[in-house]
Design a protein that fits this description.
Length: 317
């Protein structure tokens, strides 16, 4: 879509969303909302706070033809410096950030932070989500990519997700999808960019809060000792079958490798750090260089776990 066409489409979307007041912004920054804290803006940014807002969002998508991006906590995405030519969606945490416990079942809104979910489950005397304290994303993003860590993942306890289709014959309908229809596999699911997760239901086991707190403390301690802080999105690459992306990058001698304002972490090779005020395009260029070096050295293709937003087709995806 050419620039003039894109701006016109964005204006159509914004006009539909105008009744939402300051929860709809034309040309709002989203790179700053990511954990990389670099990158550009979206054509439109909207914060959804009700089912009626969801219907307005569907109407805006239909009126404009623009793609959508659910930002979540921005912990697993890299937004190009040129931005995203579409509608970025945020979920109001006062509406979609609630957690309810009913026996061994736990229901959480899509905006709930995974570390908070882990702690809440433990305090409720449940077990199965302690690992989530080490993942800085949200429930919605975790369902979408079947997030995991420390030997576990969402698919092991998820029972169902509540989803709203933003396009297609079921656009605007909020429905529950059982876990066996989500096709969850390693860092992927059957959910598409036009499907918005609004909540998830988990089936957990009985646990001892003291033991759960101890497990959580151990995971937090391990992360501090083994993973870097600062501006990054966690693990950049998926692990190849039977191997570790970090191990391969380290063996290739790439720790500390820098392109402009982006660096392969010296602490954990599968992390790429962005400098304060840096460039998302530098991070993308370094991702591509690491892929080439590992392929040349080991004939293994590394595939990004990080979602690349707004980059040209030839950029990593």
């Amino acid at each position: 879509m050419r620039n003039a066409e894109l701006r016109s489409a964005a204006r159509r979307a914004f006009d539909v969303l105008a009744p939402l007041g300051d929860r709809a912004v034309l040309g709002g920054s989203i790179g700053a909302l990511s954990t990389y804290r670099v990158g550009g803006s979206a054509e439109v940014v909207v914060t959804v706070a009700s089912d009626s807002d969801l219907l307005k969002l569907v109407e805006a998508v239909e009126a404009s033809g623009l793609p959508t991006l659910v930002v979540g906590r921005g912990s697993n995405m890299l937004v190009a410096d040129g931005g995203f030519g579409g509608i970025a969606v945020l979920l109001d945490s006062s509406v979609f950030g609630l957690v309810e416990v009913d026996g061994a079942r736990l229901c959480a809104g899509a905006a709930v932070a995974l570390p908070a979910l882990a702690r809440r489950s433990v305090e409720a005397g449940l077990t199965g989500l302690e690992w989530a304290v080490g993942v800085p994303g949200s429930v919605g993003g975790a369902v979408r990519m079947n997030a995991g860590g420390h030997g576990s993942e969402i698919s092991q306890t998820l029972e169902a997700a509540t989803v709203c289709d933003l396009t297609g014959p079921q656009a605007g309908q909020v429905r529950e999808i059982k876990v066996d229809r989500l096709a969850l596999s390693y860092r992927s699911s059957a959910l598409t960019d036009s499907q918005l997760v609004t909540a998830a239901r988990f089936g957990l086991g009985p646990g001892d809060p003291r033991e759960g707190r101890s497990v959580i403390a151990g995971i937090v301690r391990w992360r501090r000792e083994n993973q870097p802080g600062g501006q990054n999105a966690g693990s950049v690459f998926k692990n190849p079958p039977g191997d570790s992306a970090g191990r391969l990058i380290d063996l290739a001698g790439l720790k500390g490798l820098r392109i402009g304002t982006a660096t392969v972490s010296a602490k954990h090779a599968n992390f790429i750090q962005a400098d304060d005020g840096g460039s998302a395009d530098d991070v993308a260029a370094l991702i591509a260089l690491v892929q080439r070096c590992v392929h040349e050295r080991f004939s293994i293709d590394l595939h990004p776990e990080v979602k690349m937003i707004g980059f040209l087709p030839e950029a990593p995806s």
